[in-house]
Amino acid sequence: MFKNYLKIARRNLWKNKLYSLINIVGMTVAVTCLLFAGIYWNEEHSFDDFHTNNPNLYRITTNMVEHKGAIAQTVGRTGQVQGPAFKDAIPELKKYVRVMGGEIYYEVSSEEKILNLNILYVDSNFFDVFTFPLLYGDKATSLNEVNSVVISESTAMRLFNSTNVIGKVLRINNDPSFQRLKKPLVITAVVEDAPKNSSIQFEVLLPFSFLELAWVDTNWLNAYLGTFVVLEPTSDIAAIKQKFDRVFTIHAKDQVEQKIASYGFDSEINYGLQNISDIHLNPHLNRDNSGIESGAVVNTSNSIYSIVFIAIALLILIMAAINFINISIASAIKRAKEIGVRKIAGGNKTQIIFQFLIESGLLCGISFFLSLLSIKLLIPFFNSLTGKQFAFTEMLNFHSGAFLLLIFGLIILLTGLYPAFVLSKLKPAEVLYNKMKWSGRNLAGRGLVVFQFSLGIFLLIATIIFYSQMDYIRTKDLGYNPNQIITTSISGNRDFAAIGKVLKEELSKESAIASVSYAHNYFSDAVMVNNKQIETSLIRVDENYLPDVEIPILLGRNFSTDFSTDPTNSVIVNETFVKKFNLSDPVGESIKLIEYEVGNQNRTIIGVVKDFHSGSLREPIKPMYMAMLQVPKGKILVKFQKSRQQEAILALEKVYKTIMPDAVFSYDFLNELNAKQYKQEQQWQKLVNIATILSLIICCFGLLSMARLSINQRIKEIGVRKVLGATVTQIVSLHTTYFLKLVIMAFILAAPIAWWAAEYWLQNFAYRIELSFWLLAFAGIISLLIGTLTVSFQAIKSANADPVKSLRTE
Predict the structure, then answer these.
(1) Residue 662: CB partners within 8 Å, gap ≥ 6?
(2) Which residue in 199, 356, 656, 794 has a CA-CA distance of 20 to 30 Å to 336?
(3) Element of type H or E holding 592
(4) What is the 3-state secondary structure (H, E, C) of 143-156?
(5) Sign of the C-alpha dihedral, residues 308, 314, 318, 321?
(6) Burial of 89 (0-12, 13-18, 19+ CB in 10 A)
(7) Whether pLDDT at 406 is above 90
(8) pLDDT score recorded for residue 287
(9) Are residues 240 and 231 in contact, defined by beta-carbon separation less than 8 angstroms?
(10) Is the dihedral of CA 141, 146, 150, 156 positive or negative?
(11) CA distance 598 to 123
């Protein structure tokens, strides 16, 4: 019996090759998108779940309200003292470990090689808190000695071409602690590379005691590293937070009072806990909200991305399912007699339903096979699109297999049951005498087409707005010129003053290089003017910086080596600084630098520059002041002559390696660094573009099938119209107008929702496009053109048909 069902299904699919192909292509695209979304979702939500202590492993967060009513901010960081103090005072806290790094890259050298590697400073119980298996060494003792060093498996291969390197010696060029150690760093363990779904990534681990050789910080008001704690399973999180605050009040009392007396400090600080599994999708970002977590965590994301990806994949699946249903209903007229004969011959409703489920299962089986093949072929492209490192083998585990079977069953039921029920209810007498009434079926089909096109138009509008915003970001005037500038830095623990001076002198001799400048960013600093205190940004620059990046000076002058007091007494401010302090005549105004680390706190404004974007366009321009660098450090900005980029790079590398032969040379272009701030948006723009194209193609398939159903029902009407003198144009217009009404209805449904969603997304940007009617109008015009072209294909075919054949009786 089953063999007979399968044979009929195969024959029917082959007989309707075009529409079988439409269904297979649509389902293949939909299932491929859904499986990719499932892989992405699973990877995003599996971060850090491999740690044995995971259910009770938390990160301490710091909640700060700064400077009289500023917005509260939560950061995933603490200082050095919180971990030990909380452990001593709170019994529920079983263990703590401090982790500092994440984005610290130091020059690490063996006897043969020197590499820039990612360094983490950690407490000696690091491997007792986190589950990172060791290949060699003892996890209990590997970080006990101050000169211990643990390296990852891949780092061992890069440095020594071997993983069994216990006892080998390394040197850390950048770290001042190494100068005080007076003995070599000895490799005590080799650890497996951190999994890709780990928020904590590293290549080299150094004991926290090594860091303390150069720097011991007892300030409770600092927050720059990650402190992780393991709690007792029965711990009350709310009660522990209260205990944190009591410990802070006791231990930080003197420091807070001193800060109040010196600077009028009025910040509120308290502490929270964040489970390690929550960190990746809900990071607590830096002050500039750049999307980069600090302290220790480097792999951060946003839960909205995986939700949007799944939602888009489900929308495409729904569109493909609607096509399947509409095509099945559209084929009902041709198969109606088959159903009638089956019923007269004794076929029951269950058998007819089973026949359609077999056909649906066959189509879905082919689609799933092609989907797996597509995933295998497209995984490299998908990885480049998402920035991930997926492998096809991830689809072959038990969970992925169960997910595939579940989706397979649901799609068969979704696409097979409705057409089967519709056709199984047909009455043989009505079928065989052509007395069937399809108006209800038509209404359902039209509703599905409208819904389907609404989803496609929603994605189309989203794509247009997404592109417009990203184009706005790419072309917006930043207030400075980032082009023709190469950036690098002085690496290693070297004499910055001496090397910086020589480097600048030697580079200035190269004909391909126009100028050299230095800049060093500090993201936050407090300033007081006329008893008014405001949080500002600080950039330390030399006298060449402003002309090199072409930032206009509106009032006053630039820094100059002709004025010996500029490094210690002078500042340059931006327009926003002037507005915030209500300075009518800013040049010559005296200001007080509340948190400035070195030099005179009282400075004089010597110039005002035009506002420029030193950070992301997500954030508004903040009050900013510039101080003159006393020692060359931070970024080196090399401006090269136009059309001589490659010469400038070679000249920079030659001079760099001549002055610092043992240093690792690396460089970036300033305009490319700016673009990297929007890397995630650019990746998602590509994803949405692809999804929109696929959805519109599937929509066209659906409209085509619906047009086929309508025209098949009106074959005799078309024949009569032609006999009575109707032209092809009139007949085409009749059918096209009918279906364009459906497209217009879909646009009316989709446009308001898309507008709301766009407004919500654009709130993430301080500088954004303004939504206007023409964006919606443009999407509407594209939708109408697509609808017209799709329906016209079927309408012209029917209008050119021979009316004799259309009017012939059975």
Answers:
(1) 109, 114, 173, 492
(2) 794
(3) strand 590-593
(4) CCCCCEEEEEHHHH
(5) positive
(6) middle
(7) no
(8) 47
(9) yes
(10) negative
(11) 30
C-beta atoms surrounding 429 within 10 Å: 11
Q: Are 228 and 51 in contact (CB under 8 A)?
A: no
Extract the tokens encoding 158.
């890069």
Tokens 């989706």, residue located = 407
Which residue did the predictor score with more confidence, 681 or 458?
Answer: 458
Distance CA 45, CA 530 (A): 51
Are 736 and 703 a contacting pair, CB within 8 Å? no
The candidate with the shortest Cα–Cα distance to 184, out of 137, 146, 219, 127, is: 146
Per-residue pLDDT averaged across 140-145, rounded?
92
| Residue with the larger pLDDT of the pair 58 and 329 | 58
Residue 291's pLDDT is 44
Structure token pair of residue 644: 């001589």
How much is the pLDDT for 810?
41
Where is pLDDT greater, at 116 or 258?
116
Give exposure, 390-407, as e/b (b: 16+ Cβ within 10 Å): beeeebeeeebeebbeeb
Structure tokens of 604? 């004089």
Long-range contact pairs involving 50-54 (C-beta distance under 8 Å, separation at least 24) = 50/131, 50/195, 50/197, 50/198, 51/130, 51/131, 51/276, 52/131, 53/129, 53/130, 53/131, 53/230, 54/275, 54/276, 54/277
Distance of CA 133 to the CA centre of its chain: 29
* Token representation of residue 396: 């072959």
pLDDT digits (tens, 9 = 90+) for 207-239: 999 888 888 888 888 888 999 999 999 889 999
| 3-state SS track over 343-403 | HHCCCCHHHHHHHHHHHHHHHHHHHHHHHHHHHHHHHHHHHHHHCCCCCHHHHHCHHHHHH
